[in-house]
Amino acid sequence: MKLNKIGLFIFVAFLMVFVVACGGGGDSSSSGGGGSESAPPTDVPAAPVGDAAKGEELFNSTCIACHGQGGVGIEGLGKSIPESEFVRGKSDEELLAFIKVGRPTSDPENTTGVDMPPKGGNPALTDEDIVDIIAYFRTLQQ
Prior knowledge:
The protein is mostly helical. The protein has 6 helices and no strands.
């Protein structure tokens, strides 16, 4: 019985050391200890999402008619994607929402005078497809 208590004590001590070493010693932000070393940095951009190669294929079957080969734009139809500050300034989530609804000519921010239909006129595009297209956009702007 004495051996079991010693073994239990060693196990608990080991477990406590392990938990503290792994940063699981409680919420350091409430203790005023400045636990910034365990908090993830907030200025690191999110990892790219989507498959840019698949996005290029989808772009070439849906968006190319207005935005041109490589997204360079077609005057009077679609803007250049590589040069677009609009695309550059939006998060992937914001672009997804935008592409899903499009931009009618009645929108004051429409500068082409041509409707951008929802989903680029391809209602079969899924959210995942659009995210892939956005991943392709990001490669065009590098």
